[in-house]
Amino acid sequence: MSATRNQQSKITAQSQWQAYLQHHKLMAVDSLSRLLKSPSSSLMTWLVLAIALSLPMTLYVSLENVKQLSRTWDQTSQMSVYLKEGTLPRFADELTASIQQWPNIVSAQYISPEQALKEFTATTGLTDVIEGLEANPLPGVISVIPDLKTQDAAALEQLEFKLLEQAHVEAVQLDLLWVKRLYQFMDLGQRLVWALAALLGLAVLLIIGNTIRLSIESRKDEIRVVKLVGGTDAFVRRPFLYTGIWFGLGGGLIAWILLSGGLYWLSGPVERLISLYGSDFVLHGLGFTDSLLLIFDGVILGWLGAWLAVSRHLSSIEP
Amino acid sequence: MAHVKFDHVSKSYPGGHQALTDLSFEIAQGELAFLTGHSGAGKSTLLKLIMLMEKATRGQVLVDGVNLERLAQRQIPYHRRRIGVVFQNHQLLFDRTVFENVALPLRISGYTSRDLERRVRAALDKVGLLSKEKLNPIELSGGEQQRIGIARAVVNKPSLILADEPTGNLDPKLSMEIMKLFEQFNDVGVSVLIASHDLQLISKLKHRVLALGDGKLIGERPSQLEGA
Predict the structure, then answer these.
(1) Disulfide engineering: B137 pairs with which of A128, B47, B92, B164, CB 3.0-4.6 Å?
(2) Cα(A291)–Cα(A260) distance, integer angstroms
(3) Closest partner residue to A22 among B81, B93, B113, by Cβ?
(4) Is A15 in CB contact (< 8 Å) with chain B?
C-alpha cells in the first residue's frame, strides 16, 4: 500500500519536473516569437542595447591594444644617470659594474665625458665652437636600460630613487618620461572603462526594465487570469525573464558584430600606420573569452533588468 | 464538514464602504447554491473573499476547514488551484487558441503535454466545444465563450466552482444551458456557488438560494430538490 503510494508520488514529482522544463521551453520560444512579431521595435531595443554594451568594450579593446603597444616601447626605454663633475673613471666603472648586477637591469654602459664630447662633436658638427671651450662641459653618463616587461610606473620610480642614492650620482633622467605618463593614462583609462561599463550597464538595466514594464502593462489581463487560476509568482515572472534574456542576448550579439566589424575596418589603416614606425604591432581583436564575456554580460543584464522590472510591477497587478 | 464557511464576516474598503456586514453561512460539500441580490449587494465581494482576492476585515472564511486568514501569501496560488472560477466577462485571452485558454490552469499546475491534452479535450467535450479547440476565442459567440470559460474552470477538476454572473450577457435559452452544465458538475459531487441576479432563471431551478442585501444575508430559500 505504502509502496504504491510512494511510487505514485515519485511519478508525480517526475512529471511535475518534466512539466516545469516544458513550460520553460514553451516560455522561451513564446517570448522570442513575441519579440519577432514586432521586429522593428525589437530591433530598435536590440540596437540601443548593443550600442550601450559595445561602448565600454570598445574602450577596453583599445586599452588592451595600447598596453600591448606600450610593452614594445618599454623595452627601448632608457635611463641616463649623470655623474658628478670630476668623478674618476675608476669609480664610474665600478658603479656601472654594480648596477649591471641589479635585478631587472638589461644593461648599463658608461659613457665618459671625453667620449660624450666626441659623439656630440660628430653629430652636431660644431667642432669650432667646442674647440673654443676651455674645459669639457659634459658630465660622465651611465646609460641604463631597465627590463620593463614586468614593471609599472611605481617600479620605474623606485629604480630612479635607488640610482639617485648611489655615490657620485648627480641626477637621473628617465629618457622616456612619457612611458611613465602613459602608464598613468592607462591607469586612468582602466578606471574610465570601469566607470563607463558601470554607467552603461545601468543604462542597459533601465532600458530593459522599461521595455519589460511596457510588456507587463500590455499583458495585464493575462497576468490577472494566470494569478486567478493559481499561477505562482515564478510562473508569472517566467515569460518576462525570458524576454529580458532574449533582449540581452540579441543586444550582446549585435554589439559583438559591431565591434568585430569596427575592428576589422580599422585593422588595415592601423597596421599601415604602425608599420611606418617599424613596429611589429598587430591590432588585437576580440578574443574568444572577451566575446563570450560581452554576450554573457548582455544576457545577465537582460535577465536582471527583467527581474527588477517584474518584481517592481507584478505585485501591483492583483486580480 | 462544510465546504465553505463564513463566520461573522465583515468586509469594509478603505474609504469606509461597507461591502459585507457580519455574514454567516455554510455551503456543504457537494451542494449547489445561488447567491442573489441587486448589484452592489456584496455578491462579488463574497466570491472574492473565497478566492482570496480580498481579505475579510473581521470574521473568518473557511474553505475545506482551512482558515484563509492563516494562509501564507505563497500558499494563495495553491488555494486557488483547488477552486474553479467563471466570470461574467469570461476573462478569456485572445492572444491564444481555445485549447491554450483551457490548458492554462493545467500548465500552471504542472501537467505534461500528454496528460494535459487529454484533460483539455475532456473538458472541451464536456461543454460541447471540442471541435473549436483550434479557434481563437474571439471567433466564438458569447455563449460559446462562456462555455470555454467554464471548461477552463473545470479542467483542473476542482472540488468547488464559483461563478460570478455567468449568464449575465446571455439570452434565457443559453442561460439555462449554462445552468444545466453547472448542475452536471454538481451531480458528480462538485460544490457550486453561483452569484446571479437573474431571479427568473433561479426560480426555475430548485436549488438553495442565499439573498444578499446591503452586505447582509436578508433571506434564504432552502433547496426544493427531492431528497435534499
Answers:
(1) B92
(2) 9
(3) B113
(4) yes
Distance from CA of B189 to the nearest CA of A (A): 21
What amino acid occupies position B189? G
Best of A229, A235, A237, A318 to substitute, by most chain B Cβ atoms within 10 angstroms, is: A229
- What's the rounded Cα separation, in Å, for the pair B141 and B184? 22
Place of cell 453547472: B182
Separation of alpha carbons A16 and A39, rounded Å: 35
Q: Is B113 on the interface with A (CB under 8 A)?
A: yes
CA distance B2 to B168: 28
- Grid cell 513564446 in the structure block, residue: A30
Residue pair A142/A110 in contact by the 8 Å Cβ criterion: yes
What is the block-wise mean pLDDT of chain A (319 residues), using blocks of 10 residues? 38 76 88 90 92 88 78 66 85 87 84 84 75 80 75 74 84 70 81 89 91 90 90 91 95 93 85 71 78 91 94 81
pLDDT of A176 reads 60
Residue with cell 533588468: A305
Kindly determine whether residue A230 and residue B85, on different chains, have CB atoms separated by under 8 Å.
no
CA–CA gap between residue A149 and residue A128 (Å, rounded): 44
- Domain B1-82+160-228 superfamily per CATH: P-loop containing nucleotide triphosphate hydrolases (3.40.50.300)
B88 in helix, strand or coil?
coil
Catalogue all structural domains in chain A, each as residue range(s) with its CATH number: 23-72+182-314 (no CATH), 77-175 (3.30.70.3040)
| pTM as predicted | 0.73
Domain boundaries, chain B: 1-82+160-228, 93-157
Strand order in the sheet with A169-174: A105-111, A141-146, A79-83, A169-174
Element (H, E) at B40: none
